[in-house]
Amino acid sequence: MHPDDKQDLVDSYASDPFFKNIVNAESLPDVLVRHDGLFYYQSKLCVPESSYRAKLLYDNHSIPVSGHLVVRKTSSRLIPSYFWPKMRETIRQYVQSCHKCQESKPSNQKPYGFLNPLEPPVEPWADFSMDFATPLPKTKNDNSGIVVVVERLTKMAHIVGNKWANVRLSIPRHGRKGPGLFSSMAHVFVPKR
């Protein structure tokens, strides 16, 4: 350890919220040992909140030789030799806030599928798309949903109020004169997702 780092540690013990009580204590707990002004916990160097702690985190995670390891591997490098309160949490926060790791983090999503565009409609009233708007507040006709059917070539829309409980069952029964919700020519029906 560089002498400047050692002096930084000794000076930082007095200002660290956890270690300042130990510095002023007359007797140390059995698990702590003091040697050359430094504290050791179970033979691990106690590191107060200081520039040395930041340097340790940087050296064990961020330099190219370290390889920007994940939280578990960075922890496994530091924990055998060093100690500070909430050490794992500090390491986790440091790794999660690492800019390089965020830039090069691989995606954990499945690959996106290929687009399968629909064939353009060739005649009116042959291709439809449909969408449900439910549940809505009940109307005086006891409807609690809306069914929207759009003819894909002309973009003509039919909007029908319907009861939420039987929306899917009652759609084929809605017929109108002329080009209605469903036409006998319809061969493609596209539900919206």
What does this molecule look like?
The protein is α/β, with parallel strands linked by helices and 193 residues long. It has 2 domains: 3-104, Endonuclease III, domain 1 (Orthogonal Bundle), CATH 1.10.340.70; 127-191, Ribonuclease H-like superfamily/Ribonuclease H (Nucleotidyltransferase, domain 5), CATH 3.30.420. Helices cover 29% and strands 19% of the residues. It contains 7 helices and 8 strands, in the order ααβββααβααβββαβ. The chain has helices at residues 3-13, 20-24, 51-62, 71-78, 87-96, 99-104, 167-170; strands at 32-35, 38-41, 44-46, 82-83, 127-133, 145-151, 157-162, 188-191. The strands form 2 sheets. The protein has a 4-stranded mixed β-sheet with strand order 1-2-3-4. A 4-stranded mixed β-sheet has the order 7-6-5-8, with no helix packed on it. A hairpin with a 5-residue loop joins strand 6 and strand 7. The longest helix is centred in the first third of the chain and has 12 residues, at 51-62. It is elongated, with a radius of gyration of 34 Å. The protein starts with a helix and ends with a strand.
